[in-house]
Amino acid sequence: MNRNYRQLKPYKDGHDLAVRVFELTKNFPEEEQGLLASEIRKAAIKVPAKIAGASVFRGSALVDAFVRVRNRLFGLEAQIEIARDLYYIGVDDAEELLALCDRVRRSLSIMIFRLSR
Prior knowledge:
Strand content: under 5%
Helix content: over 70%
Order of helices and strands: HHHH
Number of helices: 4
Number of domains: 1
Structural class: mainly alpha
Distance between the termini: 17 Å
Number of strands: 0
CATH class: Mainly Alpha
CATH architecture: Up-down Bundle
Radius of gyration: 15 Å
């Protein structure tokens, strides 16, 4: 796969998610910039980064790497929900981010299914 990771739907979706997270977390309160905002950003940026990194693997190692990335999305969703519940991001923005997480998870699931056959 190698450099072709940029063409993968999960990578593109993960990139969109990370960019949107960075846009929305800019507006967090100053005291949260180093805490929750930072954790959400780290979790979001790891999604496309881990997909890119996994592109060096083949076979079951690639599948396992994609499964790990997919599982990370649950933690990111929990952080987004906390930010929403603390009113750091609006309900509509949170729903947008959660939908992006779901989109990445679905595209990864399709890749995992195809690679597992």
